[in-house]
Structures are given as structure tokens and as C-alpha cells.
Design goal:
mainly alpha; 4 helices
Amino acid sequence: MDWSLSSADGVARDRLYRARDLAVINRAFPGLNEQQAMETDNRLEYEISWVLQKFQQATPLDGIIRECTFYRRSPQASPPLEREGHEKEYEPE
């Protein structure tokens, strides 16, 4: 992505990258949990479980997409990515 064309700052980009990584991991290792990671002989599964723990509070990719594409009745354009914990709520007029 060419981030210079967006209004996203470093925090927003990091948030998107975490969500992307989480989505890829969940597709590659469906249902991977701590118990499986402790019992596996697969080093990659074990290491990925640590990444999953680190990202457990991350907003999922579908949540970020929903936030960025949700129609808002406002003359102002919605920012492409908002900081985690600072999402604006939809307020009907």
C-alpha cells in the first residue's frame, strides 16, 4: 500500500498490520489454541501461539473494515483507520 495517499498515521497502520497478520494466522492455523501449542511437535505452531497471545487484544480485520466502510450521516469524511479505543460511534440525526 502507498500510505502517503492516505491520512492513516503509524498507529493506524500498525493496527491494520496486526489485524492482517491475525487473519492470515487464523487461516493457516485454524483453531490453534494454547493447549494445542503446548502439545505439538511442530515448532511453527508453538511460535505462532506466542504471536496469537500477543495479538489477542487486536481488532480483527473484519472489524477494521467495518469501521472504515460504515456509512455515517455526517458531512465529514470518515477517517480510513481510527486509533484503537478512540472509535467514533454512529449517531443518527
